[in-house]
Write a structure and sequence with these properties.
- The chain is mostly helical and about 120 residues long.
- The protein has one domain.
- The protein is about 75% helix and about 0% strand.
- The protein contains six helices and no strands.
- Helix 1 runs antiparallel to helix 3 and helix 1 packs across helix 5.
């Protein structure tokens, strides 16, 4: 993977993670969904700025990913975007105060090692 391809990958991942961040903010604003309020929640999503921002970021991230796919094999690109999981866990931990247990740390380490093996030089 060239430097340009890696930058496209990283851009796609970071923008998509920003989408996840805004979707979480929107979900917190909406509150918990249950059978009684599911329809109203779905309708409220359209009016929630954080949800709309999250979806917009996801769309832009998808465009960056498509640009990446014009240059890189799917068998490399698709697993490599899993580095987004790392950013998502870190955002969950530091911004939303979610816990990271040792098993998650091991899982994140395995993802990092896998991505290094995938995108590294042959």
């Amino acid at each position: 993977m060239t430097l340009l391809e890696f930058c496209l990958l990283l851009m796609s991942v970071i923008i998509s993670v920003a989408g996840q961040f805004f979707l979480k903010l929107g979900a917190l604003k909406l509150g918990k969904v249950d059978a009684g309020n599911a329809v109203s929640h779905i309708l409220s999503m359209v009016k929630t700025p954080e949800v709309l921002a999250g979806l917009s970021f996801y769309g832009i991230g998808a465009v960056a990913y498509i640009l990446l796919l014009t240059r890189v094999n799917l068998s490399v690109a698709a697993p490599a975007v899993s580095i987004g999981y790392i950013f998502s866990v870190l955002i969950g931990c530091f911004i939303f105060k979610e816990s990271i247990n040792p098993v998650r740390l091991i899982g994140l380490s395995l993802i990092v090692m896998g991505v290094i093996l995938l995108v590294g030089k042959k």
